[in-house]
Structures are given as structure tokens and as C-alpha cells.
């Protein structure tokens, strides 16, 4: 397809959608924000967080929904006025843990709750002064691992609680340091918070700090997903930042932490790597580790190479070494199959790598689903991969695709009512020659009432690249 009167060709990504209402600020903030799906054991349901916004109260509230995978109607699991996020199903699927704030205090820190899915009310099981995050069930269902923030200079729960009360009484905060790494974007490192992992025994209610002396930081942009629990529940892997070398330069590494040895220190596994080591995940057999490794310590956007590390002898082998894309959110499925998303050609497909392929040179993954920007693939026992998908014409919703690939299918419709009768314009993908003959991609979104051949004003938006993308194709 070629634009009339021009030699610049384009591909239509999304056609126009007629409607009587424009996409204005009121419509935009009425659209629910759908979060990533979490499949239940057995594959019969998904837990899906959905955030809605109140312009009057100037805040958003997330609610958890149980979505049947057979096409039935979703039902809410939490109250509409209680902010609830990060659902985690118990191993047998009869309970769900999540993080929630009380309905009457939207500024309170989120606490861990456990909900019996066969009937009953959710029970709050923590009272951590700065809140909790990222719950994971132990394999036998006897308890959970979760993260909780502590003040760096007050590394136990009660000391942090006392310091928090003191800070609430202070009219302002003053920090003094000789450390050059004192702030990250809008977050203070000096005098700030870090995350420790805790073990909760549900029978006794006892909570134990698994890393009591640690000054490691979880990912400073998003601390969730930093750790992975071993299949037998005796240890975990942790991707965390620490200071290295004479300058105290921050770097991310992979650590191993015993859950059975009292007071065990995290064991560094990737000391010899040249730059960052991120997102460690046990192989399904539990004998190896898959993680992402970057090579250039001075390049913030160096692509991760997937590496496999054998725990018994420390031997490493490449998984995706020469692939020129940047895998993200990798996760194992049945039979050592690997799933992840990665940007490609203005979108983000779902990719698959078969077991055994990774150790051979020149092997690249297969894109089992293309179209739009996809993220967070989650293999399910029903034979599908569930993920979040959005495009320039569609807000995020949950989709699925068979593990073998094929046609994708939309699973949730939380945003449908908000977009009823909202007019949207055609979306085009242009390619033209740039400097030194390089191909340049540009996406054009036309007004809903555009008539071909009519001159239009241009609003030129440049994303924060060149190492990123709007990710909406």
C-alpha cells in the first residue's frame, strides 16, 4: 500500500474505528488498566489485577478478578475500594495470597493477605511497617516467602517501625553522605529503604528474616520478580544490586540463599561476570540457573545474553549469545521449554526456545505470536501461554496462544465498555531511508475524521530511545 501522491510506502497496522465520542482526558482515565495474568494450578482460572481511577479522588485502586479460562464470566475476588495486587495461588489452588491496603486508609503500606478460594474472608497475615511485596508459596503450602522494605540503617522490623514513626514527626529530611551513589532518579539511596526476604509459617504465624544483615538492593525501578524459589523449597535465587570494587560502583549479581540454615548469608554466584547479572531462574530440575548477563558495564542498555549456570560445578554455557534482541521476563514451562518477550520491528512478540536448542551456536528462538506489544508470558497447565497485549488502537488485555503457536485469542474484556463508541484513527507504519542508507520506522496515527488528501498538522513524538520504544504496535 502506498500513500497517495507520495513514494513513501506504508503498512496499515490498524484501521479507523468510527464513533461519536472523542478520546479525551475523561475517556482516557475511565479505561481500566489490566495487569498481567497469573494462571492457577490446573489451568482453569487466571487471577488478573485491574486498576480503575477516580478523577475526583485523584487516585487509582486495583481489584483482583478470577477469570475462567473456559470463557465464563470473571468474578471479583476483592472489594472495589480495597487496593489489592500481586496475586499468588497456593500449590493446590485452594488459596490465594495477595498484597492489599485497607479500604479506609489508601496511604497505608500494603500487607500480605491469604484468601480461601472455596469460601471465606481474606485474612491479613503481616504487619510490616513499610509494607510487603512479591509473595511466593512454599511448595508444600505451609507458608510463603515475601519481600518487605526496611530502612537501610535500621535493619530489623521493630527498628524500622520506630524510625518510621520518628520520620513522620520530622518537618523535613536532611541527608549527608560521602557516597557518590546517593540517589537514583527520584529515590534516595542514602537514608533510604531496601528489601529483605522473609519466611512466614502459616501454622504458627512466625515471620523470620532470611537475610538479616543484608544491604543488597532489589531492582531500583521494579523490585518485584527479583527472586526464584527452588522446586524443593530449601533455597532461592536472588538478583540484587551491591557495591563492587574500590569505587563502590553499583552492580547487579546473582546470589543463592539457603532457607534452612539460620542466619545464612547470600552466596555470590556471578562474581567473575563483566557487568550485570539479572533475573535468575532455576531450571525445572533445580540443578541449574538461567539468568541474563550484560557485557558492557558502561552501557546502561546493553542487551542481556541468556546464560545457564550449573550449581554443582559452576560451569556456564550460553543460551542466547548472538541473538540481537533483548529477551525479558523469561520463564520456564513444561519440559524445560522457555518463554519470554522481546522487542522486534516496533512490537514485542512472544518467543519460544525449545530445550536443548540453546547450547548450539546460531540457534534463535521462534516467535509464536506477533501483533501488538506483548509482555509477561505465563505458561498454563491448559496448554496455552497467557500474556498481556496492547496496541496503538487497543489498551492492555489478557490474551493467549497455544504453546505450539498459532492464532492468538483475547481472553478478557475489562476495557470494552469504557471504549464504547469512542472514535479512533487509522494507524500506519512508514519506512523510509535515513542517514547512511539506514531504514527508519515511523508510526503515524491519523485523526478519526481524516479524509485522504487533506493536509494535516503534525505532532512529532520521539520516545526515550534509541534503546527503547513506545511499544504500541
Describe the structure.
The chain has 473 residues and is mostly beta strands. Helix content is 4%, strand content 40%. The chain has two helices and 34 strands. It has helices at residues 25-30, 157-169, and strands at residues 10-14, 33-34, 38-39, 45-54, 59-68, 75-76, 84-89, 95-100, 111-116, 123-124, 132-137, 143-151, 183-184, 187-188, 193-201, 207-209, 227-229, 235-244, 249-258, 267-268, 277-282, 288-293, 305-310, 316-320, 328-332, 338-341, 350-353, 366-369, 373-379, 384-391, 394-402, 409-410, 427-433, 439-445. The strands form nine sheets. Strands 2, 3, 4, 5 and 6 form a five-stranded antiparallel sheet that branches. Strand 11 (132-137) and strand 12 (143-151) form a beta hairpin. The longest helix has 13 residues, at 157-169. It is globular and about 70 Å long.
Question: How would you describe the oligomerization state of the chains in this entry?
Answer: single chain
Fraction in helix: under 10%
**DSSP strand (E) fraction?**
35-45%
Task: Give the helix/strand class.
Answer: mainly beta
Name the average pLDDT: 92
Ends distance: 18 Å
Q: Can you tell me the overall shape?
A: globular
What's the number of extended β-strand segments?
Answer: 34
Enumerate how many helices there are, as a single number: 2
| C-alpha-based Rg, rounded | 24 Å
Tell me about the largest β-sheet.
Answer: 5 strands, antiparallel
Stretches where pLDDT is under 50 for at least 5 consecutive residues are 1-5
Amino acid at each position: 500500500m502506498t500513500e497517495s501522491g507520495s513514494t513513501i510506502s506504508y503498512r496499515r497496522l490498524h484501521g479507523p474505528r468510527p464513533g461519536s465520542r472523542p478520546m479525551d482526558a475523561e475517556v482516557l482515565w475511565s479505561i481500566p488498566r489490566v495487569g498481567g495474568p497469573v494462571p492457577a494450578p490446573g489451568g482453569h482460572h487466571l487471577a488478573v489485577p485491574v486498576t480503575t481511577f477516580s478523577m475526583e479522588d485523584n487516585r487509582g485502586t486495583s481489584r483482583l478478578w478470577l477469570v475462567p479460562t473456559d470463557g465464563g464470566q470473571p468474578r471479583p475476588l476483592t472489594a472495589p475500594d480495597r487496593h489489592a495486587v500481586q496475586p499468588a495461588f497456593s500449590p493446590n489452588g485452594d488459596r490465594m495470597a495477595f498484597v492489599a491496603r485497607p479500604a479506609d486508609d489508601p496511604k497505608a503500606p500494603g500487607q500480605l493477605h491469604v484468601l480461601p478460594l472455596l469460601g471465606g474472608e481474606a485474612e491479613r497475615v503481616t504487619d510490616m511497617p513499610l509494607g510487603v511485596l512479591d509473595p511466593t508459596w512454599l511448595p508444600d503450602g505451609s507458608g510463603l516467602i515475601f519481600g518487605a522494605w526496611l530502612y537501610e540503617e535500621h535493619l530489623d522490623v521493630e527498628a524500622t517501625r520506630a524510625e518510621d514513626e520518628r520520620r513522620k514527626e520530622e518537618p523535613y529530611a536532611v541527608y549527608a553522605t560521602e557516597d557518590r551513589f546517593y540517589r537514583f532518579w527520584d529515590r534516595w539511596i542514602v537514608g533510604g529503604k531496601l528489601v529483605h526476604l522473609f519466611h512466614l509459617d502459616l501454622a504458627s504465624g512466625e515471620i523470620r528474616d532470611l537475610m538479616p544483615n543484608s544491604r543488597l538492593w532489589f531492582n531500583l525501578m521494579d523490585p518485584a520478580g527479583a527472586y526464584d524459589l527452588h522446586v524443593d523449597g530449601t533455597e532461592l535465587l536472588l538478583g540484587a544490586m551491591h557495591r563492587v570494587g574500590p569505587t563502590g560502583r553499583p552492580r547487579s549479581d546473582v546470589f543463592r540463599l539457603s532457607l534452612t540454615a539460620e542466619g545464612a548469608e547470600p552466596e555470590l554466584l556471578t562474581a567473575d561476570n563483566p557487568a550485570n547479572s539479572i533475573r535468575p531462574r532455576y531450571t525445572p530440575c533445580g540443578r541449574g540457573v538461567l539468568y541474563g548477563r550484560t557485557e558492557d558495564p558502561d552501557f546502561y542498555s546493553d542487551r542481556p545474553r541468556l546464560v545457564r549456570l550449573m550449581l554443582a560445578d559452576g560451569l556456564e554455557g550460553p543460551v542466547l549469545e548472538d541473538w540481537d534482541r533483548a529477551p525479558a521476563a523469561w520463564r520456564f514451562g513444561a519440559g524445560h521449554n522457555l518463554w519470554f518477550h522481546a522487542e522486534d520491528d516496533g512490537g514485542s512478540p512472544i518467543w519460544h526456545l525449545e530445550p536443548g536448542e540453546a547450547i548450539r551456536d546460531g540457534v534463535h528462538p521462534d516467535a509464536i505470536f506477533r501483533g501488538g506489544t506483548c509482555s509477561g508470558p505465563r505458561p498454563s497447565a491448559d496448554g496455552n501461554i497467557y500474556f498481556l497485549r496492547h496496541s496503538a488502537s487497543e489498551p492492555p488485555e489478557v490474551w493467549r496462544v497455544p504453546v505450539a503457536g498459532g492464532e492468538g485469542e483475547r481472553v478478557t474484556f475489562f476495557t470494552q465498555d469504557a471504549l464504547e463508541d469512542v472514535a479512533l484513527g487509522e494507524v500506519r507504519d512508514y519506512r523510509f531511508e535515513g542517514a547512511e542508507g539506514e531504514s527508519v520506522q515511523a508510526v503515524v496515527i491519523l485523526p478519526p475524521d481524516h479524509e485522504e488528501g487533506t493536509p494535516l498538522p503534525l505532532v512529532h513524538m520521539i520516545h526515550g530511545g534509541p534503546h527503547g520504544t513506545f511499544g504500541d504496535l
